[in-house]
């Protein structure tokens, strides 16, 4: 069974601070996705990373895929209250089936 | 709005009962996926359909079943419900089965009492 471990599980910071959350696995994934989920809503896709070592930027969010395609990180610069939510990473195992394996998420709270 | 519609939004039912959750994928999407999200287990993949056929199975109980109809909407049937089945059930859709991004509905919150 492929597992994705996310850390930290909970993170509470003040507006303006920087933070990094991690997504680690012992398995190799063909691609990895990051989602943000707000209460009562479904996960919303933020980014997909495909190539080992790839870095993608989305405004204040920076996503990195590990060289071995087993881990990823999400760095947020100058966090804002609107960044509050559950951040989920999901790995795709490729092949003829499309199955996303999700981590349990990091619950981020950004206090004004 | 992701374009994926799930009904109902909330459902309260008693143990032993059977319920059906419905999902309409985004226009043009052929794949539908069902996920269960509970506090202790996170987001768990249940099953995937592609153009009417079952494509992949995850941690789906035998009491649960799903199907995808010719118009591509999907239903998840949960029977002999137990208290532990209380969770958020999400449907997601994507254009194709391989390597494409999934878009999630807002979920159905099932409470079994």
Summarize the structure.
The complex is a heterodimer of chains A (112) and B (113). Chain A is an all-beta fold and 112 residues long.
Keywords:
heterodimer, A: 112 residues, 6-stranded mixed sheet, 5-stranded antiparallel sheet, B: 113 residues, mainly beta, 7-stranded mixed sheet, 4-stranded antiparallel sheet, 53% strand
List the helices and strands and how they pair.
The complex is a heterodimer of chains A (112) and B (113).
Chain A: E1 5-7, E2 10-14, E3 19-24, E4 31-37, E5 44-49, E6 55-58, E7 61-65, E8 71-76, E9 85-92, E10 100-102, E11 106-111
Parallel strand pairs in A: 2-11
Antiparallel strand pairs in A: 1-3, 3-8, 4-5, 4-9, 6-7, 7-8, 9-10, 9-11
Chain B: E1 5-7, E2 10-13, E3 19-24, E4 31-38, E5 42-50, E6 53-57, E7 64-68, E8 74-78, E9 87-94, E10 103-104, E11 108-112
Structure description:
With 112 residues, chain A is mainly β. In chain A, a hairpin with a 7-residue loop joins β9 (85-92) and β10 (100-102). In chain A, 38% of the residues are buried. Chain A has strands spanning 5-7, 10-14, 19-24, 31-37, 44-49, 55-58, 61-65, 71-76, 85-92, 100-102, 106-111. The mean pLDDT of chain A is 91. Chain A is globular. Chain B has no helices and eleven strands. In chain B, strands 2, 4, 5, 6, 9, 10 and 11 form a seven-stranded mixed β-sheet that branches. In chain B, β7 (64-68) and β8 form a beta hairpin. The termini of chain B are far apart. The mean pLDDT of chain B is 92.
